[in-house]
Design a protein that fits this description.
The chain is mainly alpha-helical. The protein is built from four helices and no strands. α2 crosses α3.
């Protein structure tokens, strides 16, 4: 009976360690490539990498390759402009939301007692911390 249990635990341990080892290289490779952030490459470097992949997969001629690189550079620069515009828009939205919350807080101050206002602020900070914790967890899973 004891041998059966030990054998089962041994097999389960080997299985779990194999799964854990397989997950790490895939994640490390994903982080190394940096797909979500462009890998720290310039627009030209990203265009070149993509063009090389296309050349390999599609058997492009040298003339086609040069044209594809030019197209990819143009596209990568457009993408960078769009990202920059999006970030500026998001920053403006954050500022508006912050001003809106400050107005809301002033309105609450005129209605709530000091004790109620303190409790309200504590609950707000607690929710804010929970949101930050949730974002942190999502980043770690990537």
């Amino acid at each position: 009976m004891k041998k059966g249990i030990l054998l089962t635990l041994l097999i389960a341990g080997i299985g779990f360690s194999t799964i854990a080892q397989d997950a790490k290289p895939a994640r490390a490779q994903h982080e190394k490539r940096g797909q979500r952030q462009g890998g720290g490459f310039t627009a030209e470097e990203r265009a070149e990498v993509y063009a090389k992949r296309m050349q390999k997969n599609l058997n492009l001629t040298d003339e086609q390759y040069k044209k594809v690189v030019a197209i990819n550079i143009e596209q990568a620069k457009k993408q960078e402009e769009l990202r920059a515009a999006h970030q500026a828009e998001m920053q403006a939205t954050r500022q508006k939301m912050k001003a809106n919350y400050q107005d809301l807080s002033k309105k609450y101050e005129s209605v709530l007692t000091p004790e109620q206002l303190q409790k309200f602020k504590e609950e707000h900070e607690k929710r804010k911390a929970e949101i930050q914790e949730g974002r942190k967890g999502r980043r770690e899973r990537r």
